[in-house]
Amino acid sequence: MKEENRKYAQEAYDIVKYAAKEVGSRLPGSEGEKKYADYMGDKLREIGIEPKQEEFAVSPRSAIGGLSYAGWVGVILSGLVYIALGISAVWYAMAFIAAVAVFWLFSCCFLYHTWSDMFFPQAISQNTYGELVPPDGKYDYTIILSGHTDTSWCWRHSEHSYKYKDKPILGLLATYIKVGFGAVCFFAIALFSIFMGVLLTANHFNAEWTYVVLKSPFFQDLIYAMHFIPAVTALGSFFVVMWGDPNGKNASKGAMDNATGCALSYEVIKYFKENPDKMPKNCRIVDFNCGSEEAGLRGSMAFAQEHKNDDLTKNAWNINIDSVADEDYFEVVIKDDWQNCRFDTDLERMFKESFNEFGIESKTKGCIHNPVGGCDSTPMTRAGIKSVTFAAQNPMLTYYYHTWRDTPERFSMETVGTGFDVVLNVIDKIADFQDKNGFNGPQKK
Known about the structure:
Elements: H1 6-23, H2 31-46, E1 52-58, H3 67-84, H4 90-110, E2 123-132, E3 141-148, E4 154-155, H5 156-160, H6 168-204, H7 208-215, H8 217-225, H9 229-241, E5 244-245, H10 255-274, E6 283-290, H11 298-306, E7 316-324, E8 330-336, E9 341-342, H12 345-357, E10 367-370, H13 377-382, E11 386-392, H14 413-437
Parallel strand pairs: 3-6, 3-7, 7-11, 8-10
Antiparallel strand pairs: 1-2, 2-6, 4-5, 8-9, 8-11
Helix pairs in contact: 1-10, 1-14, 3-4, 3-6, 3-9, 4-6, 6-7, 6-9, 10-14, 12-14
C-alpha cells in the first residue's frame, strides 16, 4: 500500500467496521440495508456531493435467497411417494410440483430471471449514488465505481466448517459433501416424480413404450426400491432446507462482502474530490452503492433499466468492487458462467497489468470465472457498459463466505489499502485508453 494513500485505506476500513458492527446484517430490502445505504449517502454529503437515491421493489426470496424452498419441495415429494405408491394419481400432482420447482430453480435461482418475483413477498430496496464532474461540468465518459450494500442469508453449511478453519481442506469437504448430497437428492426425487407423471400420462393414451417400461424387471425393482429411497432423499433435501438460515439476526455481517466494495468506491471518489489535479481529463466519476445484489442482482438491474436512455450508461466504464479482503487472492472476475456473460477484456487486461506492477501474487493467478450465481457486472455489461468485477476473495465456500463470521477482524486494513491502490492505477489506465482510443464498448475477446 502506498503510504500517501494510507488515510484513505484507514477510512475505508473504518467504514467496513461500521457496516459490520454498527449496522450488522443487511439483507435485501431490510432496514439494515437501507441504514447502510443512507450512511453512504451521508458520507457523500460530507465531501460536498449530493447523493441520489432510487427505490425499487425486490422479492428477496424469489431467487437464490429462496433455495431453502427447493429443499422443502424435496422433503414433501419424498413423503408423498408413500402415498403415490398406493394411489397412482398422486404422481400427477408430484410431477407438476417438481416441474415447477425445477423450472424456478434454473430460471430464477440460477439464471436470475425475474419471472417469479410476483409470487413472492416484496420489499423496497434502493440504489444510492453520487457524481463528481469536472469543474466546467463537461465530460466525455463516465467511470462508475460500484459495490453492493446488502448481505446474504447465513449459509449454514459454510458456517459449520468453522471448526475446521485450521484444516481448510476438511472444511471444504464437509461443506461440499453436504451441498452435493442435498442437490443430488433433490434432483433425484424431483426428476423421478416428473418421469412418473410423464410415464402414467403416456400410458393413459396407450403409448406402446410405456407397456415395455411398466413390465420391465428394472422398473419393478425401482418401484420396490422407492419404499426405501425417499428416506434418503428426504434427508438430503433437508440439507438444502438448512442451506440458507431464514433468521435475519444470523445473516452475514458483510464486512468483506461487501462493505469493502462500498467503502473503496467511496474513498476513490473522495480521493479525486480532494485531489482534483489527479482527476482524469473529461471524466465523470460515480460512486454507486447498489442494493439487493444478493437477491439476484436486482439493484444493478434496476440501475441499468432506470438509466438506459440517459448518459449514465453511455460511454461508461464500471469497476465493480466485490469483496477485497483475502490478501492471497487478488483477482479480476471476467465472466459469470451461469449468466453466460463475459466481461470487458480491456478492463481485464488493465487489472492484470496493475497486479503485476504492484507485485501482487495471487493463488488464483489474478483471474477467475464466477462459477455459480452472478455479480453486478452482468447487468452493467448487458447495458453496454464496459465492466469487470475486482475482488480479493478466496473463491471456495470458506467458513466466512456468506456467514455471520464475515467480520473485519478477519482481514487487515493493508489489504483494503492495496485494493485502493489497484483501483486508482486502473483508473489511470482507463484515462490513457480513452485518450488514445475513445470509448469502444464492452469487448469480449
